[in-house]
């Protein structure tokens, strides 16, 4: 399917929004405090905060440059606020009030008239009318002055990067690392927001792509600082419809215990998370989306009780390589599982309150494997107690496993299955109606070929259909590495082990962690969506929205039509012999400089062949065959095969093929597909129409088995050839061609006089 990576708008639709539109504000803050912002109307928003320390401070932020939205939906960059006036009503509770030291202050970051970077601090109380917790604030940017009292230093309004309003808790002490005596839950509301004067409106992208059949995945850890309205506007505008998988993350949804060092054992959502998700679910339902809440067995390590964490045989914690790291919860630890079940039930309540179906994903539940040692983390306290005599050491999953070790891995798989089953049941119990449970598995880890027995622990047989309503699979590590053979093998294994029918399977395609990989990885991601569609997978998701927006990934709709076959896989019906004329053709631009020197640029990397097969027509009967064949092809509308009399074999053009003839690739241990080709010095010519039965393949000079021809000259190995091996092939082949003209001129008189007709053909460039 067509897509492109958009870097900016180029004549796409745009609209206008008021400057300071509530949907486009963000929040930021230091952990462990939490805050969220939601837009409550076209001119209002609300910020909810939870403070734990005296020195914590949140910011409600407006950016002059939109770096968060997709380029086709972003608002314009405008740093000049001269002669602009912003006004709004401010209300707050349990924050430092407007009239107090450290009360809400507008910090403006930009440059002064000389271009020097600097910041100004505008006390809102100096521009407010009303009470310290309920006032109308008017900010004329060309007259603003910084400082605690007026008059102060004049703000330069013409070159501002961003501005933010500070939010401090009652009891705030600047720079303090002391804990507050109790958790402070606070809020601020901005309403009647109005921008007037110069540049009071901003141009904003306003595309609305037709539905293309794909669905979106988001994550709260990635989007907690934005408004739900902003996120969902992008999802809809980019053509995604139906379901949205929303991973609640591992670090921002929970409330901390009183010591601020760990989560509450019973599991409690923090207030900002509840407010954000209530708005998210309600907006999603109102826009026709069906949100799927996703919860994993993962918690930010610094907030996870140590005795909840998985451990390896050497008693090392199971922690990821993220910064800061996350920890994996043990399926055998009852309190950890109770925590997840409580959180799940609270999200069920939020979904139902918003009128959403209860769709719940258990996201990547697994026993962690240490990435450096490949030690499985199945040896926490309960496992060492409960598994008793079955407990044996496993320190490297790459090593061959004996029967006792396999039995232990099966026991671990049984424990994982029990934990996921209990979590699923807790969701069903919490729902007042039906609940659909989906399970997500990451096959590159669960089915890593280097650890062939790991599936026993991480893909337990008790997950087999119909344990869950839908099975969801993602394989982005293999996808972006080009490990197509591993991807196919994993799909086959999963089908055999778990048995979910294709209509009960979902697929996740993504993701691009490093933007430097965007142009390499997004074509693979896009192609994988098409492949899943062709397999019959109806629920396909792109992971994830922040990367889609960052890289400008834009997927276009596929219009279902009766496909016209532009190529008939039939051979030209007449023998050519050596009478046909053959003309290799290049395209080269030649520019002559004023000094007479030439600058030549080859526009094609390979020659395009032209033929004239008219001299091969030798009789009236053959002429009738040619005319019938021309009509059957609708002239140049349909392609066909032509055997080039001078170059039809990999062995010197006309010799008997051998398995050593042409180098078609070098193994890397991952790739399993190789394109047949003819090599002419430095030029490589893809061969898309080999002769069936003529193909011979060798690997490092040894005739190869375990491969098949997929068509279009693609050779697929059952297992990827080892890194560094030479892949060679021999074959006979035809050239895909079409008639060059819409008209075939034949004169009986000239033909009878021995003059051959002209029947020009031109080679077709086929995509393999």
UniProtKB/TrEMBL annotation:
Source superkingdom: Bacteria
InterPro entries: DUF2460 (IPR011740), NCTSP_N (IPR057102), TIM-barrel_NCTSP (IPR057122)
Transmembrane feature ranges: none
Domain DUF2460 residues, every copy: 568-765
Domain Non-contractile tail sheath TIM barrel: 210-553
Domain Non-contractile tail sheath N-terminal residue range list: 17-205
Name the UniProt record assigns to this protein: DUF2460 domain-containing protein
Lineage of origin: Bacteria, Pseudomonadati, Pseudomonadota, Alphaproteobacteria, Sphingomonadales
